[in-house]
Fold each of these.
Amino acid sequence: MSKMNMRKAYGEALLELGRENKRIVALEADLGKSTMSNMFGGEFPERYFQMGIAEANMISTAAGLALTGHIAYASTFAVFASGRPYDQIRSSVAIPRLNVKICGSSAGLSDFGDGKTHQSVDDIAIMRVLPNMKVLSPVDYYETKKMVRAMTEIDGPCYIRVNRNDVPVITDPDAPFEFGKVKQMRDGKDAVIFATGFMVYQSLEAAKLLEADGIGAKVVNVNTIKPLDVAGVQAAAKGMKGAVTVEEASVIGGMGSAVCEALAEGPAESRVKTLRMGIQDRFGTSAQKYDELLAEYNLTPEDIAKTVRNALK
Amino acid sequence: MSYTEKDIRELRKIAATLRGNLIEMIPAGKVGHLGGSSSIMDVTAALYFKHMKVFDDPKDPRRDRCVFSKGHAVLAQYAAFVELGYVSHEDLHKVKTLDGTLQGHPDMDHTPGIEAVTGSLGQGLSVSLGMALGLRVDGSASRVFAILGDGELAEGQIWEAAMAAAAYGADNLVAIVDLNGVQATDTVDKVLANPNQAAKWAAFGWNVIEIDGHDFAQILDALDAAAACKGKPTAIIAKTVKGKGFAFAEGKAAYHNAAMNEAEYAQALECVKKMKEEA
């Protein structure tokens, strides 16, 4: 299985969009080399705005660019793209439903070395609670590319969270991305795992471990966290004996919370015991390797398999 | 000089009318931002009725943009919009009501003529900068005017935007500081002293012009000078009086956002009547 980088997908997709659509502009805050938005800047300097280390100003400036009819892609690390300029996103962008597309790069624990100030545990929750905001979380390189393109077509503000590291390619480059629809990645008769981002791959690996024990685990990719595919989530849980949610973010208010809300409000046959995996109400920490950090936060395939077994008890 | 004595007389009349529209929105007992709306009223009149490119269609792409970053003073804009035909007197009476079109702070979705959502202080200069850059990308000749409060200048984002606007040489952007010296709690000096505004903006790389914000000749001269300045944005530091035109409220923090009583409202009506007669 080949591994590819989602940040590269963001940079490439943005560049392609820039070539196709003159209304696309992009902004960065001294991290364009990392988010790879600088690929766009290299070819379209007149439509690229280096805003320096000033994220609040970057977001409100993006709003102004959108107000003159442009589609503004603003990128930086997820912590600095969500929590730091939260009120700018809220007031300047989300209230007037502007075409500002925010890329939270190096999201979750994926910036493993930099530690708690640079690891986003709360970005899904705080972007999800904003009226008018759409929240996207791709699983791999190809899905990232398709989502970045789709964001141009979606009217209004979007937030996409992108992993820093090379991660396995698990989607078909030719399959279309369906905004607002969950996607079943693997079928199973006993339990359903709702996962998002790189955790979809971890869940598929967990499903293999469970299969060896005779447990059938369905894996569902929740790539659009908001608006959540409520009917799709309820249908996927229907008749299952247990459910698990897995995300590289806080279990409070994130994708797992959204899935639980959908199941709780759904028909009785979907209201299955659901365990939420993710970051358990703590901040991140530095580690030498991404895998090491995922183990520390109990987000390995083994951890997921164990939690599925617990859900089935 | 792009104006005549007649223009000045005309603007005085308009400003009196706008102050009349202002108090129409906040009759006795209704809370509203009288102080900061009246301090910026003369600048507002000069912008909309003399200096800016304004059209019957508030969305005309050739228009200049005016963004009240000090969004609580939006009543000054509403007062002008009546005269521009964007909203009606009926709308004024329904300001800040559920079925009204005039929100408590600027909202482009509700009110024709409003360019952005502002009111969470400190963001409007950045939004204006984005507009200025967007207009430049499009090769548009339109310009952008951002109205800032002096209390608002405590927001750090203002200075992020100031830095960026200078770095980008955004000469189609004008920031107008309503230096009325008073904010919600007390005078700016007492709340958090932030003196030497002209020197600060100049140090950030802006073309700076200091004026009396109630002297129409000075306002128009400054706007003309800003239009002529190439390669850098212009900051017009307009010394004003909070509550200008309403003697009982002038210079007082108590009228930042308050309701007039019946006696005060009667005085306010009298002030407007006198302003109209003298204009």
Note: The domain at 3-168 of chain A is CATH 3.40.50.970 (Rossmann fold).
Amino acid sequence: MTQAPDTTPLVKIRDIRIDGRSDETWLPIIKGVNLTLQRGQVLGLIGESGAGKSTLGLAAMGYTRDGVRISGGSVEFDGIDLLTASAAVKRDLLGKRIAYVAQSAAASFNPAHRLIDQHVEAPVQHGIAGRKDSAEDGIALYRKLRLPNPEEIGFRYPHQVSGGQLQRAMTAMAMSCRPDLIIFDEPTTALDVTTQIEVLSAIRDIVAQYNTAAIYITHDLAVVAQMADRIKVLLRGEEVETADTRTMLTAPVQDYTKSLWAVRSFERPAKPAVQKGTVPLVTVQNVDAAYGKEKVLHDVSFDIHAGRTVAVVGESGSGKSTTARCITGLLPPIAGQILFDGAPLPPDYRKRSKDQLRQIQMIYQMADTALNPRMSVGQIIARPVQFYLGLTGKAKRQRVDALLNQIELDPAEYYNRLPSELSGGQKQRIGIARALAAEPRFIICDEVTSALDQLVAEGILRLLARLQDELSLSYMFITHDLATVRAIADEVVVMKDGHVVEQGPKAEMFRPPHHAYTDLLLSSVPEMDPDWLSNLLAERGVDNIGDAAVNKL
Amino acid sequence: MGNVLTIILQRLALGFLTLLVVSVVIFVAVNLLPGDFAQSILGQGATPESVAAIRRDLGLDQPMVARYFSWLGGALQGDFGSSFAQASFANFTGSDSGAGSVAQQIAPRFANTMFLAAVSAAIAVPFALVLGVLAALYRNSIFDRATNIFTLSSISSPEFFLAYVLILFLAVLNPILPSVSNIFADMAFSDRLEKTLLPALTLTLVVTAHMMRMTRAAIINLLSSPYIEMARLKGMSPLRVIVHHALPNALAPIINVVAINLAYLITGVVVVEVVFVYPGIGQLFVDSVKFRDIPVVQACCLIFAAAYILLNLTADIMSILSNPRLRHPK
């Protein structure tokens, strides 16, 4: 007779209500959500930023951040009520039976201690294993997670280890006591695609190997499709729907879920090829650039034609933003030149005329920090209007209103608002309006959608596409997200380590054969197919993905 | 490590340069003091001839630049010249002229001051750090508030007041400690310590607040960091979170505040010395200014400046060493 499977859930959250303090009042963050997790199961928690994913994940550990309180409902872990349990009881569970993997491993490892010392802390303090045994186990886990140099890497400090490796070391640390439950809070969001894939496969392996239950929090649907058995969708603190992964992907019930799924389908048709002999609007010609003595750009050349979008892709540190700095004149190149309409631009922005400056504008990744928090929306947009076009008084106001209309924000409502009174997407729109105010012909968009949720990001991309058609703008689109490239680019430039490794029209880019690095980048982008990661691993083998493959090139 | 060594050597060179600049400032400032030694010692009987004679004897008639360089040259070799007051006294009695050297006059006083500073620091620094850590641990509790009120009131009260309160409670009402700290050269260490304890306690009250509050603030500042949250989520006790995870990362600002307070203990204790009749360098300094005994004033100033520079330098270097990024470069 076989033993009946243990059906008591590991985590049982019922009608949980969580408030966050804002000024002097408590506002609800989570409005009555239920969550059940069986042993060995992986639950994916998805939603936009502000949906309360992390708050719910932490609540499953019986933990709330400062300024957050649980106002109702219950959280049970293996029959223990975490909301009424004493601090000592909870401390005994945390780290030992419930572990946490944070979004930014670089910030979540203590900079003052070596990795291995942080790894053994939980087992030693919880009295599970001695220092020595636990350190040996750590090395074994590092090896399982395919960290390079497992014997030695633990003796380094966090700043001496790369982001992807730290994220795996943190997963190893979470595993140090062989917990029953791990909360993964966006563990790969901050990583490059090629690094992400390695971390994903490492996490998936180790979770399966030890039959650990997990709550996997992310905003990336394709990632959650690889990792989770079941998916729960959250929207503004409420559950939208829950289903097992395949059902959720193939047959979502709710409109909101469907709209999330549909985002990735936005793709504007590529424009016809440029006629031979046309003078490009911007030409980057054999540019070398350096920060101090360290050379970061090597012979970079590409053209951007009028009315076209060139996407510059590559991982962090590949020289994308540096190229933008050369074009804007913030970083004068040490060799080569920038041509605008066929005429060379002075290398240093201080030597450029006002009209030359006006033609090239920038939109930044972090709209939060790119807008002066003490200036109203109207002032922010009026500044370039007055500076470049010399408009004042009523004419200035009219121009600002027109610009606000162009970015689909009502001037009457938004003119006097401060940036702190805007959502992330609205801030980015203000950034766009500020760039448009100069009436440029060329705009550099530096990762403009990477800090935004998918629905909002799609709105921004559609807006940029519309503005391009109306005003025949040219864009240089810096991004590491290939979905964005697919959506908006006409041509693609792939960069790696300061070199251009491949360039050409979008259609060619997404069709083989291409440069090995481009191939690696493309193949590393998670797809919505839940079998994608398994298939890829089967097809290529663990040694031919991620950083390991990059190093081989 | 080569990296750190270069930084240390750079700082040392810079420190020496600062000291040189300070020596110019001291020399000029002291020489700008109104009145001079000859006039103040001769008092009402000063005739132009006798004033000129004394000035000539002491070299005060030389141009300032020449006097600066002869002073600096001497100071570099550890010779701070002769005390004016001692020199003239020696002339009257005809005794050995070596007794008038500034170095000889300052040395025992400086040793006493260093002893007092060391005893005070040995009490105050651990006391302040422990209080700071506990205040951070029980932040916003009654204990935290009481600690803050206590240290803030002690730093806000005049030093002589604190001294008299301590004398009242520890010497008069409960005669545990002596109220007068008349220490001399060949005293046993334990006696010396006993006599020094009351001024040291007074100084402890004066300097604790600054160090304690910086410790508390530096730790609390880090408590919202992701790695502190991580430590909590690993189930670590609040004390361990603060001592093991927050404190090592909060050391740099704490070290700097400790250094400033140590420098204060060496240079700013005149009032406490006067109250307890403690024969330290502060009293000597004030007396020398009163008599326009320029060589002694200059030497004291230079020692004070050197103490500040040296302690800040040490603090800089220790802050650098407390940063693993600099200790273990990539």
Note: Residues 454-471 of chain A form the longest helix (18 residues).
